[in-house]
Amino acid sequence: MNNKEVTILAERVERDFLPFVRRPSRYIGGEINQIKKEAAQCSLTVALCFPDVYEVAMSYSGLKIVYDVINKMEGVAAERVFAPWIDAEKILREKKIALFSLESKAPLKSFDIVGFSLTNELCYSNVLNMLDLGGLNVRSSNRSENEPLVIAGGGQTNCCEPLAEFVDLFVLGEGEETVVKLVELVKGQKQSGATKREILFAAAQKFDWTYVPGLYEFEYDGAKVKSFQSSMPELRRGFKNAVVEDFENAAAPLRPIVPFTKAVHERVSVEIMRGCPGRCRFCKASFCRRPIRCRSVERIIDIAKACYEATGFDTVSLLSLSTADYPKLEELVGGLQAYFRDKYVGLSLPSLRVEQSAIAGLAESLSSVRKSGLTIAIEAAGEKLRQIINKPLKDEDLFAAAEAAYRAGWQRLKLYFMVGLPGESEEDIKQIVHLSFQLAKVRKKVDGKTGQINITISWLVPKAHTPFGWLGQKPKSYFEQAKKIILDEKRKLRARFLQFKFHNIELSVLESAMGRGDRRLCDVIETAWRNGARFDLWDECFDYMLWQKAFEKFGMDVEKLAEREFGREEILPWEHLGGPGKDYLLGHLEKAKLVSG
E-strand spans in 435-530? Predict the structure, then answer.
């Protein structure tokens, strides 16, 4: 890799870009606690890219950690680059201004490494758009020696083949320690005059959590994968998720950036636990993010204090896959309340365990917790269906928890259900409404009023590295009928206090097709992007027909791909990319089938 000359676009950005966009605060940088180094004086520069708008990107904890970790390295600078909204993209293209970083206003192509955080299958069109706006060729094979290394991390790397033609290297698993090792390797190789291919080969050989797709090939037989081979015999063919073993002392930014425009989650966010004790059979995170590790109460409080003093945020949020399962939650809440009560800082708990004892036991300590709504992910209305998905939640515990929550001061409940589960019947779908109705009526025991219930309905998307990953998604018509059943049942009960929100069915279909897809989807994604796909997670931008046509161009049907079942002996497009073994997952699937009969 050659040394790059860093171009700064600050003057052009200020003159020709910012006056013409609707929300300039998304693009100006310079926020409190921003870290800005002299990029030209650094031996390696990294653009940390998030394929969504500023407000979403600034709420993502993983990006904050990697930004902090890299900028603590000597001679290395990390800067942020986020997806420009539709109006901003139009200005960039019209005025031929390259997509730039917030800190230095340096164009994306002038960095040594361009790193993406991949959190969802539906952000892929934005990845390509950002590469193109930044002046890079979107295909790895078309990039010159002078163009940056394109690296990606985050949860989607465990099923990343649909992006294999665009990304040079994927990092699997947790990033705090891996990013340091990888940056040090690239820095050393670059100083020794290594080519880009030599750097990638060195990383592929050294780390079992790096996947360089250009060094591997697939052979197909119709819809199936026939073989997966490395281009060189010395390269491994299976990869592992990186794990931070000492989570107590893992990196935690103590001076997070204070956004100029209101972020989705504008608060002090402290990760208290990694992993989840549950094994919900539809959830990729519960199977891929292991083992369970907890931070001490003292460490969490210290992080919260430092972040509060550096930002002035008025809420502290406790983060994990299952915050309620943190073993010393009551002690933690009490300690945080003791420090923050007189500072008018509240606590936010994403969810609480639904056993009565968990909520009732915390009631006295929860006076500072935001009580806009208590979130309970019930997932399935019937106990048998919950056994199928491996969520052993009893109705009696659920009702006791609801009563305890009302007594502790919550005004309403937020419930999450999933439709399209294996073994599901029409009665199970109707039961979603009846169970929600009964939980609202529980409040009458407390103050004579009916509870307000907000219910979100999502559609099962079979995920890679889960027991349900072999199953096909239910047809689109099934979900449309389920939505009608739910709304009809609500009308019959005259339950105005139940507010239902439904995920976009077509989005869920696309997510299912993409999430379990192989490398041949690269052509589909590029075609959809070139035809205008942008911000597919945003309803106002998502165009299902555009994606349907992109699939059809390459002889594929998006809905058939979403509904496809995989054979047990089949080579899965993601099985080489970390996660539990197939036998373990198939054992879970067998247990689910035994329950469903």
Answer: 452-459, 498-502
The string of pLDDT tens digits covering residues 441-497 is 999 999 999 999 999 999 999 999 999 999 999 999 999 999 999 999 999 999 999
* Helices 505-515/476-493 angle, 10° precision: 140
Short-list 366, 354, 373, 370, CA closest to 414: 373
Beta-strand (E) ranges in 442-520? 452-459, 498-502
What's the sign of the alpha-carbon dihedral 102, 107, 112, 115?
positive
| pLDDT value of position 278 | 85
Contact 337, 304 (CB under 8 A): no
d(CA 267, CA 206): 38
**Token pair recorded at residue 202:** 């060195």
User: In this predicted model, what pLDDT tens digit does every residue of 108-131 receive, in sequence order?
Assistant: 999 999 999 999 999 999 999 999
Find, among 11, 77, 70, the residue nearest to 43 by Cα. Answer: 77
Contacts of 206 (CB under 8 A, 6+ apart): 185
Helix (H, G, I), strand (E, B) or coil at 115: strand
Estimate to the nearest angstrom the gap between the alpha carbon of 328 and the chain centroid. 26
Instruction: Decide: pTM greater than 0.90.
Output: yes
Write out the two tokens for 45.
């520069």
Rounded Cα distance between 362 and 356, Å, is 10
pLDDT score of 354? 57
Confidence of residue 408 (pLDDT cuts 50, 70, 90): confident
**Which residues, in sequence order, are bridge partners of residue 227?**
219
Domains defined along the chain, listed by start: 10-230 (3.40.50.280), 256-596 (3.80.30.20)
CA nearest neighbour of 119 among 156, 167, 80 = 156
- 222 φ/ψ sector (left φ>0, alpha ψ -120 to 50, else beta): left
Tokens of 309: 């003093």
Give the up-direction half-sphere exposure of residue 493: CA atoms within 13 A in the CB hemisphere.
22
For 57-77, the pLDDT digits (tens) are: 999 999 999 999 999 999 999
Look up residue 34 and give its two tokens.
């921003």
Contacts (Cβ under 8 Å, ≥6 apart) of 123: 51, 52, 536, 537
> How far from the centroid of its chain's Cα atoms is residue 194's Cα?
34
Distance separating alpha carbons of residues 9 and 387, to the nearest angstrom = 57
Q: Where are the alpha helices (DSSP H) in 226-366?
A: 284-288, 297-311, 329-340, 356-360
| Lowest-pLDDT range of 80-89, 348-357, 454-463 | 348-357
